[in-house]
Write a structure and sequence with these properties.
Elements lengths: L7 H22 L3 E7 L1 H6 L1 H10 L4 E7 L4 H13 L7 E5 L3 H6 L12 H5 L10 E2 L2 E2 L2 E4 L4 E5 L10 H13 L5 E4 L6 H13 L5 E2 L4 E2 L4 H15 L12 H9 L3 E6 L2 H6 L10 E4 L10 E2 L3 E5 L6 H11 L2 H11 L6 H4 L2 H6 L2 H10 L1 E2 L7 H16 L5 H18 L5
C-alpha cells in the first residue's frame, strides 16, 4: 500500500478546517433563539418574573426579551405603527389593545395563529375572552388579560346596587340629599377613548348599537343612541355627577370614589386592587356589578390586551412558545394575585382555591360573560374620535343630544363611505 504523505502546509490547513467545522457545529448546536416582545410599561413590569422563569426553563434554547413601551395606550399604538411602517419591526410580538386588531390585520402586519391555537385552546377561554381576537375569519391575537367596564358601589350605603339607569339616579339623589356623599356617580367624561367606552355601555344598555360592522348600520342617532347621550348629560345637569367629570379619566374617577366622595363609579378591574389598599377610605365597603341598563340589555365594554406575532418575524415558533407560557394557567394566576389583572382562561375563574382567596374573581367572571368589543373595523380610531367630539359637546351643553348624535351619525357615515365601507 502506498503511504500518503501530506505536505505540512496542507496538513495544517486540513486541521484548521476540521477545527473550524467542529467549532461551527458546536455553535450551531447551542444557538439560542432570541425573541422580543413589545409591551406597554405596566405589562412589561408585571411580567418581569414570568420572563425570568421562562428564560430559566428554556435556557440555551430560547431567550425572551420584553421591550418596555410607553405607559399610555395611544402612545403605544403610535410607537408600534411607526415601527411597522418603516419596514420590519424590531420586535417579534406586540402586546396589543383589542381595538387595534382590525387595523393591523387589514394592513397585513400580523401572522395568522390558527395553525398554533386550535378549537380546544379557544374553548378553554372564558366566554368574553374569546371576543376581539379574530378578523375576517383569521385568529391574529391571543389574550393575555381580560378587561371590562364595571360599576363599583358602596356596600355600606346600600343593600343592593342599582340595575337600571333610573335606579342609579334615584339612589344617588337620595344619598346626596341625606348627605351621605357629595356625588352620586363618577365616570370617564373626558374627550378621549374612555368616553367612547362609557357610551358603548349605555347605548347597548338602552337597547341600541353603535355600529353593526356586518351591515355598517350606524345607531348613534337612533332612539337608544340619543337616550344614552341624554342620560349622560342629565347626570351632570341633575348634579348626580360633578361638572368636573367632563375632565375625568380613570384615575380622577378612582380618586373621587377612593376618598369616599361618591357612591358609584364606572371603572376597570384594576381599580379593585387600588380600593383595597390601606389609604382607601372605602376599603372593605366596595362591591362590583355590571353597568346599569334597561332589562335584558346589560353590556360591559371589552378592553382586553393580547399578544400578536408580527409578519417578518424569524422566530414564529419560539414566539408561540413564549406566548403559551405567558398566558398559561399558572401565569394568569400570578398576574391576577400580584397585579389584579383579570384572567382569560375559564379554569382560572373556576379554581376553588383562587375563589376562596379572592371571591371578587367570581364577579369579574360574571361581567366578562357580557363583555362586548367596540366596533371591529380598521376605521375604529376615526369613528371613535367623531363620537368623542360630539359627546363632549353634548356634556358641556354646546349642543343637544339629538343634534350631537345626528352629526356623529353623519360624520361616521362619511368616514365609512370615504374608505369604501359605506353605502
Amino acid at each position: 500500500m502506498t503511504k500518503v504523505i501530506f505536505p505540512r502546509r496542507l496538513l495544517g490547513l486540513l486541521i484548521a478546517v476540521l477545527i473550524c467545522s467542529t467549532s461551527f457545529a458546536l455553535v450551531q448546536a447551542t444557538t439560542i433563539e432570541s425573541v422580543s416582545f413589545l409591551m406597554a410599561a405596566p405589562f412589561a413590569d408585571a411580567t418581569q418574573d414570568l420572563v425570568k422563569q421562562f428564560n430559566q426553563e428554556h435556557r440555551g434554547v430560547i431567550n425572551l426579551k420584553v421591550i418596555r413601551g410607553p405607559l399610555e395606550t395611544e402612545a403605544m399604538s403610535d410607537l408600534a405603527i411607526s415601527s411597522l411602517l418603516l419596514g420590519k419591526a424590531p420586535f417579534d410580538v406586540l402586546l396589543m389593545d383589542v381595538t387595534w386588531l382590525p387595523k393591523y390585520a387589514a394592513a397585513g402586519w400580523m401572522v395568522p395563529l390558527e395553525d398554533y391555537f386550535n378549537d380546544n385552546d379557544i374553548n378553554e377561554l372564558a366566554t368574553g375572552a374569546r371576543e376581539g381576537n379574530s378578523y375576517n375569519d383569521h385568529l391574529y391575537r391571543w389574550p393575555l388579560t381580560a378587561d371590562m367596564g364595571l360599576l363599583y358601589y358602596r356596600t355600606d350605603l346600600m343593600d343592593q346596587p342599582p340595575e337600571t339607569p333610573e335606579d342609579l339616579i334615584l339612589m344617588s339623589q337620595s344619598l346626596q340629599n341625606n348627605q351621605k356623599v357629595d356625588w352620586g356617580y363618577v365616570w370617564q367624561g373626558r374627550q378621549y377613548e374612555g368616553l367612547s367606552c362609557v357610551y358603548l355601555e349605555m347605548i347597548d344598555g338602552f337597547g341600541g348599537d353603535w355600529l353593526q360592522t356586518s351591515t355598517n348600520q350606524i345607531g348613534l342617532n337612533s332612539t337608544p343612541g340619543v337616550e344614552a347621550a341624554a342620560w349622560l348629560q342629565d347626570l351632570i345637569d341633575q348634579g348626580v355627577s360633578p361638572e368636573a367629570v367632563t375632565n375625568y379619566a380613570e384615575s380622577e374617577a378612582l380618586q373621587s370614589f377612593k376618598v369616599g366622595d361618591s357612591a358609584f363609579m364606572r371603572n376597570w378591574p384594576y381599580a379593585w386592587a387600588e380600593l383595597q389598599k390601606s389609604d382607601s377610605a372605602v376599603k372593605g365597603n366596595v362591591g362590583i356589578t355590571t353597568m346599569v341598563a334597561e332589562p335584558g340589555h346589560t353590556t360591559a365594554t371589552l378592553g382586553s390586551w393580547g399578544l400578536a406575532v408580527l409578519q417578518g418575524s424569524s422566530h414564529v415558533e419560539a414566539s408561540i412558545e413564549a406566548i403559551r407560557f405567558l398566558t398559561s394557567e399558572s401565569a394568569q394566576k400570578e398576574l391576577f394575585l400580584k397585579y389584579g389583572y383579570t384572567p382569560t382562561q375559564q379554569r382560572v375563574f373556576d379554581d376553588p382555591q383562587l375563589l376562596q382567596e379572592s371571591p371578587i374573581l367570581a364577579e369579574f367572571g360574571k361581567a366578562l360573560k357580557v363583555a362586548k368589543p367596540r366596533p371591529q373595523t380598521p376605521l375604529y380610531a376615526q369613528i371613535s374620535d367623531v363620537l368623542q367630539r360630539q359627546l363632549s359637546s353634548i356634556l358641556t351643553r354646546e349642543q343637544t343630544p339629538q343634534l350631537g348624535m345626528d352629526i356623529a351619525d353623519i360624520n361616521t357615515k362619511q368616514i365609512l363611505i370615504s374608505a369604501g365601507d359605506g353605502s
